[in-house]
């Protein structure tokens, strides 16, 4: 196994986390709440002194350079702080762990993850939903079965992987169900 394989899996994991969080974050960011109305993102170019005390508390790491940030960056950071405030302590801890994993990735792996995420965002909504459902289905598999799938995938040549992707892409829903059953039967043996 090459030394880049663990990095690849980290990047894949981070990408998967981003994919899973996208609908949650989007929903939370769009949910009308009393807190979001009170602590809404600042208007473009709002000086630090005009931020609400709660916003200032959450955005404290940006205090010294806040007024030098471009207005779009200020708004993006403020929206992130708003989402942070809406998270439970458990969600905040998970987010911190994911951020640390993200920070530990080499820049090239982060760029790959950003590209994959953008490719996902460029997909039609029904394809995005299909991918989310497939990911959740994968996550619901027992760990041993997930490991078997990963091993089988790793044992394939690039050509075999491409052929499988193409077959899956061109298959009807009925054919896909048959393929799933065959894969499950192989995994059970």
Task: Outline the fold blueprint.
Elements: H1 4-30, H2 34-38, H3 53-58, H4 71-86, H5 89-104, H6 107-122, H7 125-140, H8 143-155, H9 158-170, H10 173-188
Helix pairs in contact: 1-6
Describe the structure.
By secondary structure, the chain is mainly alpha-helical. It has a domain at 141-189. Helix content is 76%, strand content 0%. It is built from ten helices and no strands. Residues 1-40 have low confidence and may be disordered.
Shape: elongated
Helical region count?
A: 10
Q: What series of H and E elements makes up the topology?
A: HHHHHHHHHH
Separation of the first and last Cα atoms: 25 Å
By secondary-structure content and strand pairing, the structural class works out as mainly alpha
Flag low-confidence runs. Answer: 1-40
Average pLDDT over all residues: 78
Give the tally of β-strands.
0
The biggest sheet amounts to: none
Salient structural properties:
single chain; 189 residues; mainly alpha; 76% helix; 0% strand; elongated; disordered N terminus
How would you concisely characterize the structure shown here?
Helices cover 76% and strands 0% of the residues.
